[in-house]
Amino acid sequence: MTTPTQRPPELPGQTVVVIGGSSGIGLETARRARTEGADVILTGRNPERLEQAAKEVDARRTAAFDATDPAALEGFFQSLPDPIDHVMVTAGGQYYALLADMDFAQARHAIDEHLMMALQATRYAAGKMRPGGTLLFMTGTGARRPGISLSIAAIAAAAMPALVANLAVEVAPARVNLLAAGFVDTPLSASLLGDDLDKRRDQLRATLPIRRVVGPADVAALAVHIMTNTALTGATYDVDGGEQLVPGA
Ligand SMILES: NC(=O)c1ccc[n+]([C@@H]2O[C@H](COP(=O)([O-])OP(=O)(O)OC[C@H]3O[C@@H](n4cnc5c(N)ncnc54)[C@H](OP(=O)(O)O)[C@@H]3O)[C@@H](O)[C@H]2O)c1
Question: What pLDDT shows up at residue 94?
């Protein structure tokens, strides 16, 4: 019988910046990047939550700021003393609203959060990145199918793949990629669902082709793979356990 050989870490000596690294998918990606030998730099808005996360993963550096503020985002990247390898952006939430109830200022902010932040982060970060590194953004697969209250989420879900493909051509040799998740069991999902969280988990276990709930570790594993596989750029990777294939899942 053969036993698997121990493999060397995949990100030795590299630096991963996580914009939105104090919780959920971002924090899990930071954990995984650390186990693969990378240094991590974490950002988020809430300084206490950020410090706690930084302590847990022994982050090299932290910065507390709102990533939707372009001046703050630019200042953050300018302040980094050394080159970086990868940037993952998990900051930004979702805005679900019926058209009749929609707060247009909030809707505009929600569109900005994903689209403008991707443009701005790419402009400010690309010059700081060593060749071979990737920028990684997040979107969802859920809003690909039209639905009530989904119009703002649908705009981001439809536009992000095109944006990422164009950015990948423009900022090469830096790479740019996109992760599209379905339901991921994170603090964000818990806060959106409240008392319905367990019901949603049960429904997903019963209906998803993978028969289990997707967790942050599933997304983090894909994120780290995209960091290490330098053939990948300009593309969108779905990680939703088949959710988009099952109507009503
Ligand atoms: N969870 C899902 O089911 C799911 C599905 C599809 C797509 N996504 C997308 O994946 C990304 C990560 O989701 P998650 O579930 O991991 O969320 P999460 O647990 O709430 O984590 C989000 C992280 O981003 C930070 N953040 C949020 N807004 C920010 C801002 N404006 N500036 C700086 N930092 C900010 C948060 O810290 P602070 O709050 O302290 O700033 C936190 O560290 C989001 O863009 C979400 O829309 C999630």
Answer: 83
